[in-house]
Amino acid sequence: MQKPLDSYERIALEFEASVYETGRSLFPGNTRVLDSLAISRCALGRYNQALQTLDELIDLQPGNPRFLYNRACVQSCLGETGGALEDLRRAVESGFDDFEFMTGDPDLEPLRETSQFREYRKRALIQRMTKTGPVL
Fold it and tell me: So where are the chain's domains?
């Protein structure tokens, strides 16, 4: 989960989110703007808003593994274990293969002890090895 923000970090993130909100108004459907907005909202702990933004992104690019993975993280932060595992499955099936990141991601801590998480992590590792060869 996220660490507490000090007042300077919060101000900077609030400003960043407002810039991306403006960008969203000026460039509707721009995935870079929406992706940055979702990340800013997560950093501020605004998980429901981040989830809405990620839904927009997934509507625009349904098979984007990073957007699906980020949605799994937000669901996990909201305590929605079932939804998080489903999104994680979809992310891996869509090509998410960053086994190391998935293994250490604090947002996914609530999922770590589930058999589904271990299975998806294994699939991500297999995908990575298939692309790059064995990890030594």
Answer: 7-132
What is the SS3 assignment for 134? coil
Mean per-residue pLDDT over the chain, rounded = 93
- 83-93 pLDDT, tens per residue? 999 999 999 99
Q: Provide CB contacts within 8 A for 33, sequence distance 6+.
A: 20, 23, 24, 27
Q: What is the mean pLDDT of residues 70-84?
A: 97
**Which residues have a Cβ under 8 Å from the Cβ of 47 and sit 6 or more positions away?**
41, 74, 77, 78
Residue reference for tokens 């996220």: 2
pLDDT value at residue 5: 77
Q: What is the CATH number of domain 7-132?
A: 1.25.40.10
d(CA 100, CA 121): 9
